[in-house]
Amino acid sequence: MSESTKRAEKRELGVELLAHLEHEELSLPAAMDRIETVTADPSLVREILDTAEKRGVIEREDAGLRIRRGGTFVSFGSQVVTREGEFDCKRCGTTISTGHFVRLDAGELGPFGSSCIRTVTGRESE
Prior knowledge:
Layout: H1 3-19, E1 25-27, H2 28-35, H3 42-54, E2 58-61, E3 64-67, E4 80-88, E5 95-104, E6 107-112, H4 114-120
Helix pairs in contact: 1-3
């Protein structure tokens, strides 16, 4: 798989993650925390935010974002799956034995621990 293909896949995954957040408003640092589960590359993070804004997924307001998702959010019943094994949480780095993975149209994101999955999907604020 080429680097440009990987970059495009990560961009789509980041945009889709933003589109599926639970809350309609999010601070820029909280949005960055979620996007960094997809990539830590600053230029790709910026590209994800720009793409999401161009597609009408988000609106930027001062130091925050307004999510314009149209009522969609991650369903824990069908879009979040768990697997047993030895994992490191993609958000906090903690070693976990149960990994939570988010299945989106653009791909799968994870693994996350039980508290980080709620933060990443916007079910809990930090």
